């Protein structure tokens, strides 16, 4: 590895070392421990949760990891594997899962070497994707499995993660919480994780997952590949038409039947409480698709102008319930097709809403923050050069595109969608490798594009619930962002929320009257101004359409 910049950025956060020959390696005592475990419980004596926790402590000592594990984590490992699992399932885990996981960990240095040899030249190598640094990391599912095995064994160094605003990555808190404050939801979160390891040890998946940090540039002029952070005037003057709006009173975002960018109601720290006690929308998604957890290793917290998009994460578990009622219900076979990079066509975008905004959410500053956050997540950066070029071809300069936007109406949504760069092809029979296809895609300005699919937005009550946002407000904000991002549709899952019973009627009324983005934004601003001044107690829908059956909106606390 001649150019080690990517590796150097992540190396302090990995448990492996660089030897004298500049090869990645484990310390010798760790190799001995893993080799013993790889030969099975009769050889290693690792045949219970209690012994596993001792083996974890020994390996951590061999790595000179001085930060203590969470209190009660050893008891958590023992509780789950020795008491909550049946004797038969526990025996199977230590005989059929721990040995292959140990083998996978032994191969981590070579998996990383192979990864950098293939990805480094294209800029998609594993590295810290830091704040205000747009970029992408492309990992094989096998490498992700090895990294998550490090999490299970609590082998990642954590002493400097707080300084970099990186989320939790080891599983000690997950198991400690199980013992310290037992709950069925926590047990079932662990069951999802354990099932993932059982699956990959039975048959290792061969695809890839990409992790992308997206941003709206705070600098002007922005780079050639990034849109700038819009001001209120941008939204006021936008004449782009609103995209079609579909309302689902039941169903789940992850089960959306057609191609869509699925919204993760995220914490600013990716994964939120997934590895702690959290068990709402984001945490559940990370449990049923544990490959998402890999992003927590190298993606620091999001700023107001940032979002994270993950493509290709496979789903392994089925479930029922939510929060305290969450239950793992068994295996899930993910039948989604794959793209030319070997990524499953599951696209997830993490956007973090304001927490407990109360009456502040009706102020322009915060309306703009939320709308731009959603816009950052929804904008397809791979099409941005085409998006910009089309506006310029219609007489709009680069500066006007970001600051004025008054000629938006010269371009229809269909023009932009139909004038994408030609496909970089799902057919790779011209003799080029997968990464050669990526290179050609980049040269055409269509990084990782799949233009045969028009990808809409599948979302729901983002920033509501525990975050305390106004669901009517958040619905409109997401519609504005999806429309401005030229998404062909938004599918909204209300989860039966009473406050959104009239959503379908309101959205159809707005579409019938052919409002554009600026029209709806200006109406939202007028409503919010009245709400802030105490001139209305109505929700936005009833305020907009007084003929609707309505009651006064619940008043947010000051």
Automatic annotation (TrEMBL):
One biological process term from GO is: carbohydrate metabolic process
Q: Where is the PARG helical domain?
A: 86-213
Every copy of the PARG catalytic Macro domain together lies at 233-501
Per its UniProt record, what InterPro entries does this chain match?
Answer: PARG_cat_C, PARG_helical, Poly_GlycHdrlase
EC number(s) per entry = 3.2.1.143
Please name the GO terms that the record assigns under molecular function. Answer: poly(ADP-ribose) glycohydrolase activity
What name goes with this protein?
A: poly(ADP-ribose) glycohydrolase
In which organism is this protein found?
Theobroma cacao
